[in-house]
Amino acid sequence: MKPAPFDYQAPGTLREAIDLLASNPEACVIAGGQSLMPVLAFRLATPSLLVDLRRLPGLGNIDLRDDGFRLGALVRWRDIEDDQRLASAHPLLRAAIAHVAHYQIRNRGTVGGSLAHADPAAELPGVAVTCEGEIILFGPTGSRTVRAGDFFTGPLSTIRQPDEIVTELRLPKWPGGRRWAFRKYARREGDFALAGILLFYDEDREGVLINPHVGVIGACRLAHRLTGVETLLDGRAIDDGLIRRVAAMAAEEVDPPDDLHADAAYRRGLVATLVERSLRAAAQQGSAACG
Amino acid sequence: MRVSFRINGDPVAVEVEPRLHLADCLRDVLSLTGTHLGCEHGACGACTVIVDGTAVRACLMLTVQAEGTSVVTVEGLSSDDALSPLQTAFRKHHALQCGFCTPGMLTTAHALLTEEPDADADRIRSALSGNLCRCTGYIPIVEAVLEARAAYRKADKP
Amino acid sequence: MIGTNRYIGSPVERIEDLRFLRGRGQFVGDLKRESMLHAAILRSPVAHGLIAAINPAAALAIAGVRAVITAKDVGGVPRIPLRLLPLPGTERFLQPVIAADRVRYVGEPVAVALADSPALAEDGVGAIALDIEELPPVPDRHVSGRGDILLYEEAGTNAAMIFTGDKGDADAAFRDADYVGRHRFAVQRHTALPMEPRGVLAEWDAAQGRMTVLGAAKVPFFNRDTLAAMLGLLPAEVDLIENDVGGGFGARGEFYPEDFLIPFAARHVGRPVRWLEDRREHLTAMNHARQADCEIEIACRSDGTILGVRGEVFVDLGAYVRTNGLIQPRTLAQCLTGPYRVPNVRITSTALLTNKTPSGTYRAPGRYEGSFFCERLIELAARDLGIDSAEMRLRNLISGGEMPYRLPRLEPVGPAGDTECDSGDYRETLERCLAEFGWEEKRALQGREIDGRYHGLAVACFIEGGGAGPKETARLDLEADGTASVYVGSTAVGQGLETVMAQIAADTLGMPLGQVRVLHGSTPFLDEGYGAFASRSTVLGGSAVFEAANALLAEIRAAAGARLGCAAEQVEVEDGYARAPDGRSLAFADLAAGGLRVTTAFGNDNRLTYTYGSAAAHVAVDPGTGDVELLDCLVVEDVGRIVNPLTLHGQAIGGMVQGLGGAFLEHLVYDATGQLLAGNLADYLIPTATDFPKIRAIALENHRSPSNPLGVKGAGEGAIIPIGGLMANAVANALASFGAMPNQLPLSSARVWHMGSAKKSTGSSE
User: Number of folded domains in chain B?
Assistant: First the structure.
């Protein structure tokens, strides 16, 4: 399973990288390579040129700012795990990333790579979409900012143009005391989710649930929010009855694929289960909220 | 393309095609055949090596991406005279049968224990979940890694 | 045997580990030769079709691609013969070494490209223009059985073989029964999946007319003879060399098309050729296994005593009959009832051809499947009759007093295929298992919901027929430096052969272990050899080594006696020295100058040994996700005699985990056009370190085998056998309140979820 032949460049500036992409329509970007290399090994893609981002400066930072978080495209899963600030600053991000693949892959896989690859079962696109993040793209005409909800268009498909590079993911600020949960089901540890739910909500002064955000991965063609579920939750008090209704609605709201690992009905069932467990976990925050 | 890096402490320079992955470079160009190919698509972990201190799948890395890095393979885990404490523990616990997955298990465990000498059984299993073994059923491997922790907790690392 | 065993019975650390731990194993992919070319194989992309044209021009135009070989270049070569059970009629369904005008499965070899590097060879394969006129495929055994589409028109049938297992009078037993239960069960297609894919490195010496092939495994002597015949050479002109082997499990080492194609290519181009299989092609090229379904019934008295079992089993064999492809259906016909007393049996087992990768043996072939069928059948009968699972087994296990216990007569094999359970106390391992497991205490959890999960327990019993004949050969040389070299026809696949054989030789010769080296498998070592399969290496290879060592010992004593002036019987041998009664001694090195060498063969008249045991399991099922957590699984087996408890335990744990993979995860899924959907390791799922940590195994040696001088029984396959039925019954018991009927493997989380989601409706779910 050797790749078809290609040329290779590791440019030193973003501008050089963009110029290479613009002048080589058959080129592919490579960062950590954890998603691209298997694609090349199976010869599902046969690019004439790989443009490696490894030498580009300034793309490996995790910035915590007043207005939110900025993760450079070359930030690796490992960097997120090692960043002690994130455990309390953005626990949902931290919890979701802990489930990505395996130990070795987390040492190389990147934020930009995951977003650009857009696997519908991947964790980071789920975080980006659920948290209303923004993805910064850099191309021949400069930077543009795309809402995460608009970025993903289908399985392995985004609105990124061939001569653009993902340079950053921005996530809104995360208030302390926010209730959240991440629940994923896969057949083995490290496998892609058959279904995964990411959620958070806040509470107003009376303890009423506000600002619910519920996202799904795995049981869908692309990571997306469950807006019907969010509407049902908004302004309500969490009780068993509500949880059951919300879970049932979530199962209806998703449009899951059928594949050799899971049929659509099962995926719907998983969504219902994971929504239910996520809500209970979030409501009981103080104990472990992620499983 | 010419690529220069360090391998098991020694500098090397190789001339390779861009598409040659690091595992093939180690095996075929440098004749370090301890790193094994079990799948070539990043699923089995038999090709795990340590690059700049972290465990990576050598089949998912191009040789050209190793430029300027420091690579350690299973051959670099011990001297000619003696097995390392980790290798000794593997032998004691019968943590290998056919030996094909073993180099990847050793490099992964070594990287893990170097950073986390107090890793418990759950953490060890989780870190090894990306290394497939068909012979042992994993239990003796986890036992061996648990026993080897003592050597990594000492002030002088092996 | 002299004195007490120092090594036999001890958990000796393995000799072979030293090179593996250092990354200095010599697997075939680690070997190279001067001017070597690399081969890649063009494989059929369609399941069934007629080859209209193969055009290699574009491939040959790639710089570095040196040659492309097709059937035209190969010419007429015998088809791949059956190593086992070459019954009349099977010759119609043998696989050619390369597809000539027709392809019958996705993955069938069509051409070989030779190039300067593996990447270029793959580029070459990609550039060969292959034109195939598709034929309607036979996607499963049901279509196969209908016979509207035939894989071989001349044969007029897709049924490659029909076996029957007969004992007593099944029809009469069913007429008189208080209870009859009838069910359908199915085991999925899965595969051995050793971590090392295959490889072959071949060198042709034109001057000498000798072919040397490296990468041999399992049965090199048979493969050598087969290859020689295909190449038009004498066996003596062909050497198959065994190096290090990354797991076999029954699948590696049989004769495959590549075992001819690569040596042929080396002779064709006059340069060494190496082929290394990649994982994607491995999944369509290496033997598949296990796919079988059945409709069977059990007849019992109301107290649970089994009176009879009858029914039909169907095996989906794939497109050709492979060298050992008939072992699975044959064993299903004869051994389905396992260790239970079933006086009346009639099982028909039909091997049907389909347009899929051909299947062969995989660790306990036919036994894993048969145990699943049998244990489900018995469990359902126990449930219907209101009898406890363990009690049902106890009541029906073959007892020691009934040994030897004859299993059903197998046709069309006849008396030559008769076999009997040899020795042991089956009840003892069941009672030990239940006690160690804590069955009495845990029973209360059966079917209960705790913290949202349903708990289930199950027990199963098994026999492992091992030590398959006919014989094995060993040669012992006492070297000039006093060390001993043991040459044995057995082959190593990772099971610790070098250490176990050394233990036997060292103890028998009274030598330190470090003074014994073991060389194995390669054809130049011995005039004849048989290999490692059906858990025979310790039984036959070990016995051959034992007898050779005893013969060598006799020679040592005779030689020492002559030199020390005493009778041979008076010579004491210890620690590499031969000592006379008066205290004078000679080191082995002093005696070896005369050239001491012994060769023996040990045969067991094809009497199998029967390791036996029991297993118990406790699961917790999450109906919300279909997840099954294995909370405890224990296998207790009596192996007759333990040579190395360390390696034996490794076989048990490894076998259990493979069995669990088959029970929950592994599935070679095909679509309706014969395309394999599980084409990589992200889709074909095997257990990882986190999946099944709570398993344990205990080995007993209370009942020796009567059929070999060591008293050992084959023990590499026992622990895998009961796992499928055990897990299905545990899940069934956990989800009893849902009416769950887990009658198909694998118990994927999807299937289990569906079974656990029907509580709101009234019917049962499957």
Answer: 2
CATH classification of the domain holding B67: 3.10.20.30
Domain contains C84:
yes
Cβ-defined contact of C690 to A189 (cutoff 8 Å): yes
Range of the domain at C557: 17-25+468-603
Residue C759 has a pLDDT of 62
pLDDT digits (tens, 9 = 90+) for C448-460: 999 999 999 999 9
Question: How far is A203 from chain C, CA to nearest CA, in Å?
Answer: 28
From C688, which residue of chain B is nearest by alpha-carbon distance?
B129
pLDDT tens digits, B71-82: 999 999 998 879
Element (H, E) at C695: strand C695-700
Q: Which two tokens stand for residue C74?
A: 């190969």
Q: What top-level class would CATH report for the domain A7-51?
A: alpha beta
Query: Rounded to whole angstroms, what are the CA distances from A209 to A89, C270, C430?
Result: 21, 78, 57
Give the whole-angstrom CA distance, residue C186 versus residue C290.
10
Name chain A contacts of C665, Cβ cutoff 8 Å. 187-188
Q: Is the ipTM of this complex over 0.90?
A: yes
Tell which of C586, C603, C620 closes a domain.
C603
Give CATH for domain A62-172. 3.30.465.10
Residues paired with residue C454 on neighbouring β-strands, in sequence order: C449, C621
**Percentage of chain C with pLDDT > 70?**
98
Chain B residues inside the 8 Å CB shell of A34: 42, 57, 60
The one-character DSSP state at C541 is I
CATH topology of domain A179-283: Enolase-like; domain 1 (3.30.390)
pTM of structure: 0.96
| DSSP state, residue C92 | G
At C534 the pLDDT is 81
Is B158 a domain residue? no
Report the first-to-last Cα separation within chain A, whole angstroms. 36
C576 and C706 fall within a common domain: no
Query: How far is the CA of C342 from the CAs of A206, C169, C403, C702, in angstroms?
Result: 71, 11, 14, 25
Q: Does C219 lie in the same domain as C119?
A: yes
